[in-house]
Structures are given as C-alpha cells and as structure tokens.
Model the fold of this input.
Amino acid sequence: MAAAIGFEFAVVAIAKQSVVVEVGFEVDAAAVAAVAAGGAAARNVFFAAEGHAAVAAVAGLHEYLGFINKHDNKTPEKDNISELRRYELPERRPRLLKRLALILLTLVIVAAAALYVLYFRRTPLPAAAPHARVVPAISTIPGIAVCWVETGKTFSRFSFGSTAGSVLVRHPAGDLLIDTGNSSHFDDEIRGFPFGTWLKLKSLAGELKPESPLPQLLRQIGEDPAKLRWAIPSHVHLDHSGGLMDLPPLPVLLTREELQFANDPSVQARGYVIAAHVQKFPSVAAPTLQFNPVPYETFDESADLYKDGSVVVVPLRGHTPGSVGIFVNLSPERRMFYVGDAVDDERGFEERVGKSMILLDSDNAGKVADQIVGRLNDLHEKVPGLAIIPAHGRSAYKKFFPGGPQSCVSNQYTR
Done:
C-alpha cells in the first residue's frame, strides 16, 4: 500500500501469538516498512512462529499509543491521568485560592455595609425646644454606692459593644436594683413565638442572655438578693425585666402607663413583653410609681425614691409609654443618669441621633422617642459632668465604673 494513503499498524506480541492491533490515522512510511520487514523474516505473513519473539520498536510511535497490555498493571490511562493530575493541581490551586479569597472579601464587604446601614448610619434629629434647668440640691450621704452587674455582653472589645444587666444602688434605707437583664430561661420563654418573631428575639435580645443567673452575680459583689428593697425596670421589655424571674419576690416599681402597656396582648404577641414576666409586676389598678409635678434638671415631673435626693426618677416616655430614667447622686460631683433604651449608646445623646435601623421598630412612639433624644442632648450640653448611661452602652459603663463589671463606685472610693 502506498505510504501516502496507508494506515499505521502497531503490533505487539502478547503471548501464544496473540496480538492487539490498533489502527492510527497518521501516515508513517517508516512504520509500514518496519512491519513488512518483520513479517518477511518469519514463516507467517506477519508473525514469528513463537509468540515470545521480541518485536523491534517501531519508529514514530509512542510507547503506549493505541495499545492495550493485558499483562501490565500500569495502564496508559492511569499513567496519563496521574501525570495530568500531577501537573494540573499545582496550576489550579492558586486560581482556587484566589477565588476563595475573592468570595471571602466580598462577604466581608457586604457584612460591613450591612452593619453600617443597620447600626451606624443614623439621621441627626431636631434640637429640643428650649427648657429651663432646675439645678437640684445634692448632698453627700454616707453609705451610698452604685455597682455595675453585667449579665450579658456582645462585641465587648469594641467601642460599640453592648451590655445588659443591672445597676445596684446600695443605700442605708434599703438597696435598689435598676433593671434586671434577661431571664436565665430566655430560650424557653421565646420558644412558642412564630419563627419570624423568634428569630428577631434570638438574634437581638438573645445575644445578651445571662452568662450566670442574676442572683449569683449579686452574691459575687456581696449582695443578698433576698434583702433587696425594690426593683425598678427602666421599662418592661423582656431584656430589662426578665431577671425578675430569677430573683426572690420583691416590690417592682412601675407606673400605670407601663403596666397597661405590659398587659396589652398585642404587645406580648410581638415578643417585647413576656406574659410570665408580667406576673411579677403589680396590677394595673395598683401602680407602684407615681410622679409629682416637681421639676428636676430639665424635666417637669419627678419622684424622689428615698426622699433624700440620692435617687430621683423622671419620665422618659417614648420607647415605651412608661419608660423612666433614674438619677443616682453619690455626691454633687459624682452623678449618673441611667436612661434605659431612650438611646442606643453615647452617640445618641452626644450627636443627637435616634435609634439604629435595626432597633427602630422597638420604639412604641417614634416621634415622642426622638423628642426625648433631643432632651437628653440638651441635658448633656448643660451638665457635661453628668454621666448618662444607656442601658446597653457598654462604653459609658466602663467610663463610670473604672473597675469594670461587678465593681462598685461610692462617694468615697471605687472597688
């Protein structure tokens, strides 16, 4: 057959004159000549008499091109795949790592943008209407101290970290607990809500679940929970009144407005108030906190709990109908004003900005709540030495309590 149009035959002697022949599509005259020569030397047309005879290498053909060797465990396919993997994997690995890094970077950027939009971006609010300040007469009363009792925290290493828990006021006439944080039974309390409500509570208030039950933390600072005189929630939301479930029974100070709000079925259905917590409150018909028309600082009403000016409560209606703020006066120079959730953090009263987007729907009356923010900003500018403490603003606590959580400050010393 002419070399120009002939096929290449590759022949391998296997055993007992068995051969496997593959037909290639490349024309190679030298190969054809070599095969023909091998056949002429033998008595058969193509093969030697014995299958053991060696066949000379055919020039121009790859060692395994088109052949199957049934007596060799090393097949061409396996060798070729291994060879390909050996060279392909190192080449593909950098590309894979680059893609993973790009995906990770994208996720970080999206998360940062979401955090900025949901938490950090806030619109400045209008300034409060002018209001005269009534300067209180404050005396130093021996034996008064205030303690930070932290039951939960998030992002504690950052300036925007959150906290939850209580402020304990030690007073010769009986100790007062301001707020109580979440219940140690938080997960059980929210289990029955629809999924959307459950998820919201779990991802917001649930991030501040108690690390230890409130009574245990009180005992760590030398306080006997059974000897508390009062508890006063800044408002009745579950992350401020839940700790009552862990405490022995004690009088809870709440206004009629807040009690009506707490007993509203629609409020409980939204998960802001837990029905079991309400059982710890006084009845709507017998409120335990009432304001007198006695101006205090920039507020028109007030209630002096101990009648000595050491602890004075004022209304901060807006976040809830009966939200309150509590002034604790250790001395004329050392004072704090606990404002609950009237603002998220120090930015609220320093920059006069409202709630972050993620917490906007927690305000019962948004416009009224915004007015309170303006009032707090006005007070901050008039009395810069007053420490305003948002309930969840951890950085504000750290400034007033240099000893950190589970520490106390008095008019004489810090411990």
Q: What stands out?
A: The longest strand covers residues 145-154.
